[in-house]
Specification:
single chain, alpha/beta, 4-stranded mixed sheet, 3 helices, 18% strand, globular
Length: 96
């Protein structure tokens, strides 16, 4: 986010930027998983990585990489929330 001038920005500002520019959001912040405030249909995708607070960069990169290797998930991410943990991925709305 720092690259586009949003380092330290509020969640609502990041979400607005993503909506306005047709971008997916990848975060560890569960605030963006609240579909009442951030309806997945408004975004190219919302991906929340669920890891312990003490996770290091290599763990975060490994988890994101394992998610991104599933091309079928990426192809169907638009309009969905994906909560990704080391053992499973939950989509809302679910993949059919």
């Amino acid at each position: 986010m720092r690259d586009i001038g949003l380092g330290g920005a509020a969640d609502s500002d990041i979400a607005r930027h993503a909506r306005e520019h047709g971008l997916a959001v990848v975060t560890r912040d569960f605030v963006l998983a609240d579909i009442r405030n951030y309806p997945p249909a408004d975004y190219r995708g919302l991906v929340v990585l669920e890891l312990p607070d003490d996770a290091v960069a290599t763990e975060i990169i490994a988890l994101l990489g394992s998610f991104l290797r599933h091309e079928e998930w990426i192809a169907r991410l638009s309009g969905r929330l994906a909560v990704v943990d080391p053992h499973r991925v939950r989509f809302r709305p679910p993949l059919s």
